[in-house]
Amino acid sequence: MDLISRRVVFKALMFLCFIRSSQGRDHFTKLNLPPFLKASRFPTFQHEAYDYIIVGGGTAGCPLAATLSQKYKVLLLERGGSPYGNRNITLLENFHICLADVSPESPAQGFISTDGVINARAKVLGGGTCINAGFYSRAKQSFVQQAGWDADLVNQSYPWVEERIVHWPKVAPWQAALRDGLLEAGVSPYNGYTYDHLYGTKVGGTIFDETGYRHTAADLLAAGNPNNLRVLLYASVNKIVFNTKQGHRKPRAIGVQFKDENGRHHQAFLREERGSEIIVSAGAIGSPQLLLLSGIGPRNELKKHNISVTLRNEHVGKGMSDNRVS
């Protein structure tokens, strides 16, 4: 191969690498997302107050922030960084690398449960949708009923999510073999392509598109009102602030304390209007942990860790189990 041909091939390879590495940034630009700010950009003395403060920008926190910002002033606090531009998150081919990453900057925080199960929790905007296998299915109807949710409202919410981040998968040969094996073993009927939770065998949805690009819950923030929505990254909330003045029958949450990426402490507060709320959506582990650190939980447990009791609740942090353990 002569020198000119080598230069042409080299430039072509460099161009392809640039296209692949810039996919996440292009997607970020096209989405028209609200600005993502590092927590250190939050003023030490903050006079702005919010209708809602959401702790945890994951699968629940992101759509909540987007919908509430249509009418209200919302602050979304996420302890991790942005998923955009991280190829180990966005590319299907790098899925395994993301889970194997044990660096401090990893979006996946590995742990072993008390049952001995190796697992990982998300530490990134978009939450579990950034590190999971990308399978999507609607909830079982009986689950919605048992949870006490409004079934009509739940059914109206599904298309809102599906139009933005869910896709029909291309069935790979091994997946087709698994499907055929299930049917041969009598797992029937075959329901074809469907998002519904049905008995039998089906092909569900995926948050990976046809190019192998992952669409996470963070994408849903594009549906929010950027004028009402502030998103802070690397904001680790360590306490909920309560109004404990005498005369109040129960403590009322009025704000949160959090640390930024440099270890500096900040506080953010709700408006004084009735109905303003702090929503804790920090996952099955992070949510009870934050409540306990804020003095909400079993009295003996709080006393053991020298935490003042704000509100006694014997159920916080109890009854957890891994659903993969029989």
Automatic annotation (TrEMBL):
One of its GO terms (molecular function) is oxidoreductase activity, acting on CH-OH group of donors. Residues 122-145, 283-297 form the Glucose-methanol-choline oxidoreductase N-terminal domain. The keyword Transmembrane helix does not apply. It holds the Pfam family GMC_oxred_N. Gene3D superfamilies: 3.30.410.40, FAD/NAD(P)-binding domain. Keywords: FAD, Flavoprotein, Signal. Coiled coil: none annotated. The keyword Flavoprotein applies. It comes from the Eukaryota. Transmembrane segments: none annotated. Residues 1-24 form the signal peptide. Belongs to the GMC oxidoreductase family. This is Glucose-methanol-choline oxidoreductase N-terminal domain-containing protein. The lineage of its organism: Eukaryota, Viridiplantae, Streptophyta, Embryophyta, Tracheophyta.
